[in-house]
Amino acid sequence: MLTYIIRRLFYAIPILLGVNLLTFTLFFVVNSPDDMAVSQLGAKYVTPEAIQSWKKKNGYDRPLFYNPDAAGSGAVTETIFFAKSLRLFAFDFGRSESGRDITTDISTRMWPSLAVAVPSFVVGIWVNICVALLVVMFHATRLDRWIVFVFVAMMSISYLFYIIGGQYLVAKTWRLVPISGFHAHGQFWKFLILPVLVGVVAGIGSGARWYRTLFLEEANQDYVRTARAKGASEIRILFRHILPNALIPILTGIVVLIPSLFMGGLLVESFFGIPGLGSYMLDAIKSQDFAIVRSMVFIGSILYIIGLILTDISYTWADPRLRLD
Amino acid sequence: MKADQMIPSTKTQRHFTWLLLVAVVMFLVACDERPWNDPQLPSSDGLATYQSMIISTPPKHLDPAISYASDESLFTMQIYEPPLTYHFLKRPYELIPGALVSLPEVSYLDSSSKVVNEDDESVAFTRYTLHLRDDLHYQPHPAFALDASGRPEYLFETAAAGERYHQIPDFPHTGDRPVHANDYVYAIKRLADPVIGSPMLGFMSQYIVGMKAFSEQVASLPRDQWLDLDNYAMEGLEVVDERTLTITIIGRYPQFLFWLAMPFFSPVGPEVDRFYHNPGFVDRNLTLDWWPVGSGPFLMASNDPNSEIILERNPNYRDDFFPSEGESGDLEAGFLADAGKPIPFVDRAVFRIEKESLSQWTKFLQGYYDRSGEVHSQPAGLFDRAFQIGANGVELAPELKEHNITMSPDVQPAVYYYGFNMRDPVVGGYTEKKRKLRRALQIAFQTEDYLNIFYMGNGIVAENPIPPGIPGHLEGEAGMNPYVYDWVDGVAQRKSIEYARQLLAEAGYPNGRDEITGEPLKIFLDVQSQAINNTLMTWIVRVFSQIGVQVEFRPADFNRTREKMLTGNTQIFSFGWSADYPDPENFLFLLYGPEGPLECACDGANNGNYANEEYDSLFRQMRILPQGPERDSLVARMVELFRYDAVWLFAYYPTEIFLNNSWVHNNKRHGISRATLKYVRVEPDERAKMQNRWNQPITRPLYAAALILVALALPGVIAYRRRQKATARHAQE
Fold first, then answer.
1. What's the predicted TM-score (pTM) here?
2. Residue whose C-alpha is closest to residue B579's, from B416, B461, B459, B447
3. Which chain B residues are within 8 Å of A134, Cβ to Cβ?
4. CB B168 within 8 A of CB B141
5. In chain A, whose CA is at the least distance from the CA of B365?
6. What does the pLDDT average to over B698-703?
7. What pLDDT does residue B355 have?
8. Strand, helix or coil at B724?
9. Cα three-residue angle A51-A53-A56, rounded to 5 degrees
10. How many CB atoms sit inside 10 A of residue A210's CB?
11. Is the previous residue joined to B152 through a cis bond, with omega within 30 degrees of 0?
């Protein structure tokens, strides 16, 4: 297994390079270094000297990809791409365009992201699985058809609707929890109730419907009939027989997401005022802070790759017949 | 048998544990007297706290040499104290001494630095002498902490030595000291240091003697560690004694006084600068950009740019008192109720970062924010929920009236406009025909309707580039643009569409068609994408269709729009300008020829490339004249030229209405200065009472939800039990 993991990690290098190149190109297609300078310096009294000075101070006074004035390897290394992107591979994220240390910001902001994302994720999966198993129990009945209809309706509604509706009803009209905000200490849990609730409810439609499909495939297998013939209760059949056998596709969908929980959610964090990495990324895009954008995309790519590797590893746990070579 | 006996026992224990947990949570909730939806941390220190918010993004810079944005000055202006400030109540805006004993003494020098009369033609320099108050004192800060031997306590050789400090409150010891004249000199030298990157470097180098040379000198020095700028002299700066300094500028520039009221000229102690250059500090965001150190009424107690910024009263702040006089009407409005009382009133101010308008607005209505906004008023899109148009104009919505919320209208010292590119072959130029074309378009564009429809009347039609509250702004008939309006029965009345059509025909476009080619006249509007929408586009198309003119929109993002203006690749463009200081020069320079981007090949402010020799000549004269009738007449003539040449399609002065909860006092808005937090007074007990009254939770939905869950679960349980008990035959049936 170790060999497999090491091989996968080596495969990650060209993927990360490609992601970096793509991010870099896309960003600079719409934003020149001059645009970035103006954005950071403000709209008033911005002289060409000030723009040049800002670019020099922040390392944007070089060509993007190829430096014809530099000799030898300098033609490649003395470029913005090399200077800004490749240092990420040493996990040196540097400073944001406004001067803050990105590593410090990320390490501070990942905790609020996790505080919302982990409970939403865990409770969401638990609720979806339970609901899906219960629906499976009533397969091919009128109740099943109605519930599937509700699932489709729920998954067709925009996530924004759940957020704004939840805020309007639970926080504004019923005044049960704060409408937004976050404090790392004190009664921090009361800020998590609404975003977690919204996350779970919004995910039931698509999640439970998907799990229902997986469980139905298993429910028709011979071993289920055998278990039932031996007198096992429906609950036991669902949780002890069907669920473990449907784990492979479930794991494919959820393990890959676990590392990405650090990255938080763009919408949830923005609407609920959670100072996590999702809103960090959103703010960076709005303020054209390329240093933060490229760091977050890089970290996101790494976490996704780790998620894929973990998924493969989890298969061996879910199905002992599988081996990673 | 044993196992069987254990099962119920374990179940009972589990149930008991759950019940206990629920009971503990309910007890904790019940013990907390605050409403369930209170988003603020409980405070038991009894300090008078002002609760507010900042919108969207936290400030990027708080270093006084760099910070320039208005949302940043919300903080820098509370923490720093520049030499001058503005009177809180008086209008037009009035400069008063801040850190100074009196307004600066001004003397004029010839090229050999000999003092000459103000009106002498040989004036080559102006010297400002600043006398500091003797009670100025810095806030407590570790940068001033000294060890037993009298040396700075927190100076580290290596990053590892100071790695346990992550925020300023982490430092166990602090110190303080009086503010010296040299601190102001040091701050100006920082403006000139290219490594710091002050936006003022280019602009101020034109004025302060020796600034450019100083900048070039320090730029050439090695910068691997802190550079003590005190070791390098700037020609135009002199420390006369501990409380006196002089600043010498090139030529005459009376507006320089206004710059002395901005944070750029706030004092910075050299030891503070040195402190923040400790190895490794910048990697932990321990910088002057995030932890400002000043002598103003407040100090930075907590700076979490992710969620909130907390200011607390500076215990070393000088004696300061609420003003005893204001403009007419202030007494009746209650703004002088606290006259003569020591300020600041509040001990702490909490600014939470709000990204979404719904939550910001809801918290204001729930009483968790004292006012509806700081830099901007109520969130965009929620205006129609807050106000309704009544018999007396804009009135509060009934919901707000019940809360005894008060309104603070604010006409901003700003002008937003759509300008013509005067070099455009179709709408530009200075012939009579071109003027008539532009005037026809001006008349057709119903600015009054535009403001009423799209801004709920929040704006004043601008017939002059100079907004209200600033010398040069005229009201009544004198303030009317006679090329677009007629004065009828004491009211300015827009000229008719028929007259606009006539002008258009005289301009060579009868019925909106080119009299030579027969092609319809089409104009192009370059606007920022976020500043226009389909409704507005439809409306604009409709108003110009009245005179047969077609419109094409070219929306783009800020960078592309700016690029088009810099290259002159635009016909009609949108732009806005907010005053740095309350002087007509700060607006009239928007039309000064050398400021045209195509003229100066720079990011000039005259985006329309307006070029009128008489205007430029008047501007040069006006710029160096002190306030007075002579200057007023020059300004009036320039405004007349602006109207005659029809330089802008339309313009308006933005107005905002800020809302205040009933327990907040002294809410008068100041369009220029943000140094007004020290005047704000709150009644925390009243606020707590109202918060409790307005935020009693409605628990019925919780019971309803529980009932619904049971109702949903019950048939499932019944069906499950029936299924479990069913025989094979029954199941098949």
1. 0.86
2. B416
3. 716
4. yes
5. A172
6. 92
7. 83
8. helix
9. 110
10. 17
11. no
Contacts of A287 in chain B (CB under 8 A): 57, 60
Phi, psi of B444 (to 5 degrees): -65, -30
Residues of A in contact with B304 (CB under 8 A): 275
Place of tokens 């992107």: A85
Contacts of residue B170 in chain A, CB cutoff 8 Å? Answer: none
Residues on chain A touching B60 (C-beta within 8 angstroms): 40, 98, 287
- CB pairs below 8 Å between A and B: how many? 166
Give the span between the Cα atoms of B278 and B276, in whole angstroms.
5
Question: For residue B266, what are the CA distances in angstroms to A99, B3, B199, B294, B480?
Answer: 21, 79, 15, 8, 40
CB contact under 8 A, B37 and A234: no
Longest dimension (CA), chain B: 118
Where is B188: in which H helix or E strand?
helix B181-192
Beta-carbon separation of A280 and B304 below 8 A: no
- In sequence order, what are the residues at sequence separation of 6 or more whose Cβ sits closer than 8 angstroms to the Cβ of residue B140? B174, B175, B176, B299, B315, B316
Fold of B414-656: Dipeptide-binding Protein; domain 3 (3.10.105)
Query: Which of A39, A47, A99 has its CB closest to that of B202?
Result: A47
- Express each pLDDT in B269-324 by its tens digit: 999 999 999 999 988 889 999 999 999 999 999 998 778 899 999 999 999 999 99
Nearest to B57 among A167, A233, A287 (CB): A287
Taking only the tens place, the pLDDT of each residue in A211-260 is 999 999 988 899 999 998 888 888 888 888 998 888 888 888 888 888 77
Please state the domain extents for chain B: 3-36+698-732, 66-302, 414-656
State ipTM.
Answer: 0.86
The H-or-E segment that residue A310 falls in is helix A290-318
Q: Which segments in chain A show pLDDT lower than 70?
A: 42-43, 325
pLDDT in tens, A177-202: 999 998 877 778 899 999 999 999 99
| B87 in Cβ contact with B93 (< 8 Å) | yes
Helix then strand count (H, E) for chain A reads: 16, 0
Helix (H, G, I), strand (E, B) or coil at B279: coil
Quote the CA–CA distance of B247 and B88 in Å, as a whole number: 26
- pLDDT beyond 50 at B511: yes
Q: A180 and B200: CB-CB below 8 Å?
A: no
C-alpha distances out from residue B279 to A58, A104, B230, B272, B420, Å: 19, 16, 21, 14, 53
Q: Do B200 and A46 touch (CB under 8 A)?
A: no
Closest B-chain CA to A101: B283
Q: Which residue type does B708 have?
A: I
Q: Is B193 helix (H, G, I), strand (E, B) or coil?
A: coil
| A286 vs B57, B200, B716: nearest CB | B57
Sign of the CA dihedral B358, B359, B361, B362? positive
pLDDT score recorded for residue A197:
95
Choose the CATH number for B66-302 among 3.90.76.10, 3.90.870.10, 3.40.50.1000, 3.20.20.60. 3.90.76.10
Looking at A167-272, list the stretches that DSSP marks H as alpha helix, in order from N- to C-terminal side.
189-219, 222-229, 234-236, 243-245, 247-254, 266-272
Question: Which of A49, A101, A127, A179 to mutate to probe the B interface, most B CBs <10 Å?
Answer: A179
Angle at B181 between CA B175 and CA B182, to 5 degrees: 80
Contact B306 A280 (CB under 8 A): yes
